[in-house]
Amino acid sequence: MAVNLDLRKLQDIVNENEFKKLYQNGLAYAEEIEKDSSIGFTELPETLEHVNKAKEIADKLPENVDTLLVLGIGGSALGAKMVRDAFQNNLTKKLIILDNVDPETIYSVASSMNPEKTVINVISKSGTTVEPISQFKFFFNLFEKELGEAETLKRIVITTDREKGVLRKLADEKGILSMEVPANVGGRFSVLTPVGIFPLQYCGIDTKSLVNGALNEKKEGADKSVKGAVLDYLFFNKGKNIKVMFIYSDNLYRFGEWYLQLFAESLGKRFDRDGNEVKVGATGVLAKGVTDQHSQVQLYKEGPEDKFFAFFKIKNKKDILIPDSLSEYKELSYLNGKTFSKLMDAECEGTMQALENDGKPLILYEIDELSIENMGRLIYLFELQTAICGYLYNINPFDQPGVEEGKIIAKRLLGYN
């Protein structure tokens, strides 16, 4: 099993009968979700359509390109960033993902960019998302001044809705290369659509393996997703309203950022499906092992009893031996012959046991190795887990009404009518 879920000592914390009942409900919800054609993320592992389309688009782009600039935000950026940062050594092109409108960052990116050797991929399902649209206006102008409109248009790929929005209109009217975001897939579930597939594949990532990993996870069944969803639901209802994700891998750290959005936007809801005000949803917190043992664990061990923990570690990873240097200092001899992998694993286990000794609920995800296929497995596992948890809460995990009000106010402040 490429991704193993270890429930540790939860039998001392979770009522077995309650867990079994919720587990059966979760299995039923998983089957319902995977059969519902309006929930598109479950269909994505079954097809290589988007992988093939990405290659078709790439073949039409200029040959001398060495950089891809992605303009997107939220689900239009986090998935690609997660995979990019996990597999930097696989990249054949520089992949810049600009997911904020901080002018200093935009200036820095623009100052070091060679438009002739760069392709822009602007991503917005609605075609109206203000952040990528504003970035696109800026970089289109920059490229047009240096290359002219005709050459600029050759270096643009638009990823948006099939029919509506200004980006679709622009692609159709200007003849710009474009790809479609499936109508039944929300942004935070879209990493296996052209949103994530095109930029990753264009820059050297084996996206076929990514999709196949998700498919293999789906074929293995929903057991891990259901167990994770049930525990998220149980812990929240037992007053554990903060979920801490402790990730013992620098390369996997951005997975935590991707999952935080998935978790927060999907499960933080005011109303249930029946219109009752429920205000559910734990708060996700990201921690890096071993770094944050020295910045957060004091709070987790001795602070309020409002947290539960999910630890992530890689079983097989590259290793380095700690040498027998400074041998005259006997106090350091316990490290002789050890490796950094063994050190990291010992620190992870030490932190888990210290929390367990205080009765803190935690689970452990152990990934055999950090491969592209296993990343695909993680994507599907946690997308399905999040959806199941939403069904256990009796809320809609696929909308995000709380995000929209701030967008409307911001546009109004900018003079939008």
How does this model look, in words?
The chain has 417 residues and is an alpha/beta fold. The chain has helices at 16-35, 49-58, 78-86, 103-111, 130-147, 149-153, 166-174, 194-202, 207-219, 223-237, 253-267, 297-302, 340-357, 372-393, 401-413; strands spanning 3-6, 67-71, 94-98, 118-123, 156-160, 177-180, 242-248, 269-271, 277-280, 283-288, 307-316, 362-369. The protein folds into two domains: 3-35 and 220-402, 3-Layer(aba) Sandwich (Rossmann fold), CATH 3.40.50.10490; 40-208, Rossmann fold. The strands form three sheets. Strands 1-12-11-7-10 form a five-stranded mixed sheet, sandwiched between helices. Strand 2 (67-71), helix 3 and strand 3 form a beta-alpha-beta unit. Helix 1 packs across helix 10 (223-237). The N and C termini lie far apart (54 Å).
